[in-house]
TrEMBL record:
It comes from the Bacteria. It holds the Pfam family LDcluster4. This is Cytokinin riboside 5'-monophosphate phosphoribohydrolase. It comes from Nitratiruptor tergarcus DSM 16512. One of its GO terms (cellular component) is cytosol. SUPFAM superfamilies: MCP/YpsA-like (SSF102405).
Amino acid sequence: MKVATTFGASKADRGSVEYQEGIELGKFLSQKGFIVKCGGYGGLMEAVSKGVYEIGGTCIGIGLEEFDRFRPSNPYLSKKILVKTLYERLELLIEGSELFVAQKGSIGTLNEIFMVAALKYGGLKPNIRIVLLGEFYKSLNCFDENFLQNVEIYDTLTEFERNFERV
């Protein structure tokens, strides 16, 4: 069983380029045989789940009890798991995944990316693959060489798809 986890903004307009790319990302990962995990709410998490749903794949949402009280539900999830803490949520998002794909996001997305990058860099999960999608990531000047050696950055989903088997 192959598992991929996606990270991305909880607020993304359904008509946005990123949302449409999220749907295509969900489809692509399912077609490649992955069970997909995400944060389980709206925005890009919903978009990825929708893509998985549309082709009959499996998408598991890992939600937070506190968030669940005020965030709209995601109708495209195959299963939703609620946890009590952000730490537990992040642990379940990471556990068992071999591929991590991040679209544009905010502080939560960056936290998730840096955690998996730290696990890879520190040798605790040396075989995971971390993909950052979007020009957004190339524009951040805070990344050092150690970080950049542990991630792949693609401007578009199409570019990632073309390079999927090569890496």
